[in-house]
């Protein structure tokens, strides 16, 4: 005796009837039993488990007319039409909210509640009735793409906020305990966690590409890439720079900016309006961004003699690629680009963003 499996069943509804599509081909020996709120079907055919006996049972949300059940066996499937005993829209097909995995929604046949059953014009529920389509997606998958992206962004921003809070807390505790003597060991204390959360920030460059955020891809790359260059190529790659006081101040500036930025993003995702946080997000950068650029410039400038001495990252001739690259010269060029077009581009972008956010709010209050 062969096993009995459950086929995939796709359903849709109008105000007066339910349609079912059973995903079985070349069906034989079909048997249908129906009562007011129960439909049982058994058949032999080819489905997801090959040639086998298949069956399913539906405890329906509301009663149907057992005498008005029509089904048609075709080569690719079995189509059912069930007449509702009382006209009306069912919130779901079955009586219990936990939908079995084999029960799917037939989006091709679905009609929205505000559509006329006799309407001749063919509509696409995805575009003509987006609210209904979203409800169906939630029933089918338990979430929508937008909800998944929102949950991911909340978790990401919260994780980054906790990371930068940790860095600030460690720096603050060490300074309160040891005073200025703790400054020179800042990188040894928080360098590794800072590198980890900085690497995670490269996800922010990808978010606009995936449509998760509407940020400028160029600005995101300049912010994350510029900071990563200073952290990994200037500080982590040169041990003598790691003990300089400027590292403490640079980490302090970077972390202060982020512990304001990430909570602001979280409140935006949760549709929570905090006027002071919005003002702080678009104001705190005015002193901190130029100061941060200045500290980064000091790190690069002080590193040039070190890299002249070690020749690290420098490629000299002869080599198999017949290519030369002098890293200290690159740093001098990068320093010019950082303070002229780099600072100008970043400050201009932030000024426009601040005017848009705070200027709009002010005019609205007036």
Describe this structure in words.
By secondary structure, this protein is α+β, with helices and mostly antiparallel strands. The protein folds into two domains: 9-111, Immunoglobulin-like (Sandwich), CATH 2.60.40; 140-354, no CATH class. The protein is 53% helix and 17% strand. It contains eleven helices and nine strands. The protein has helices at 125-128, 130-141, 145-178, 186-200, 203-210, 217-236, 239-242, 245-269, 275-281, 285-310, 327-365, and strands spanning 4-5, 9-13, 17-22, 25-34, 38-47, 50-59, 64-73, 78-84, 103-105. The strands form two sheets. It has a five-stranded mixed sheet, with no helix packed on it. Helix 3 runs antiparallel to helix 8, helix 8 packs across helix 9 and helix 8 crosses helix 10 (285-310). The longest helix has 39 residues, at 327-365. The relative contact order is 0.07. Its EC number is 4.2.1.134. It is found in: Endoplasmic reticulum membrane. GO terms for molecular function: very-long-chain (3R)-3-hydroxyacyl-CoA dehydratase activity. It is a multi-pass membrane protein. Pathway: Lipid metabolism; fatty acid biosynthesis.
